[in-house]
Amino acid sequence: MAVLEAGDELPNSLTSFLDMQFSSEKKRKKSVLGVLDPSLGKMIFDHYEGSIKISTDDIVKEIVRGIRLHFHHLLDEISESDIIQSQLSLRFLDFLFFCDGLCLRCKTLCVLMIFPRFYHICL
User: Fold this and answer.
1) Dihedral sign for Cα atoms in the order 7, 11, 17, 23
2) pTM for the whole thing?
3) How far is Cα 31 from Cα 33, in angstroms, rounded to an integer?
């Protein structure tokens, strides 16, 4: 996953997606784009020179939380267990990124804190 910093430009895939969604000036004036990350919202706002309205407030956070919570109800092909499994996988990837330099014993303790179900595997 790429991390955008203050001096970076928006990826081409994001700008082409936004250009496709906000193709007309009428859509840009009428719509508000909700962005979870305020720095990304500022980059989008600056890139389009203020023609796209950006919202990064608590309403956007609550909408994203609701989508994550009820995502398995929105798509028939995905079950709640699939969502839980993907969240565990993301947690594990975060863990690997976080403790890259830790010793094996520290990593084992971290795995037990994150995934207490795997206690028998780690011993």
Assistant:
1) positive
2) 0.60
3) 7
Instruction: Provide the token pair at 45.
Output: 């706002």
Q: Is the CB of residue 32 less than 8 Å from the CB of residue 57? A: no
**Sequential DSSP letters for 29-80:** HH-EEE-SSHHHHHHHHHHTTT-SEEE-SHHHHHHHHHHHHHHHHH-TT--H
- pLDDT tens digit sequence for 27-75: 888 899 999 888 889 999 999 988 999 999 999 999 888 887 887 777 7
CB 52 within 8 A of CB 20: no
3-state SS of the chain: helix, strand, coil percent to 5? 65, 5, 30
How far, in Å, CA of 31 to CA of 53, rounded?
A: 7
Burial 50-60 (b: 16+ CB within 10 A, else e): eebebebeeeb
117 DSSP 8-state letter: G
